[in-house]
Amino acid sequence: MTNRLLQRKQMVVDVIHPGLANVSKIEMREKLAKVFKSETDLVFPFGFRTQFGGGRSTGFVLVYDSMDSAKKFEPKYRLARQGLVEIKRIARKQRKERKNRNKKLHGTEKAKGKKAKKSND
Description:
Layout: E1 2-3, E2 8-16, H1 25-35, E3 43-50, E4 56-64, H2 67-73, H3 76-81, H4 92-103, H5 109-112
Antiparallel strand pairs: 1-2, 2-4, 3-4
């Protein structure tokens, strides 16, 4: 089905793979790109579940018209899965330390992120 508002084709895909546990998303992207005459970077397969007993998987695929529309409408985590966007993560310990430092600050100091020094006179 085409979705003109989001500039993409979206579909539920059944993949038959006898003898294999499952099909890799990279292979799936290449084959679907050939079928829909687009680039492999514009094909986003996700949510695949293998049927009990194996041999068949069902999932969802989005094929975007352009890279701009893909970057505009796709969630960042899916773009990161395909290597199109780098998600910068701060270490967990640093996040916790910052949170605990901010507990000691009041008002607009929290937004600035600096601590007011108290002098012990």
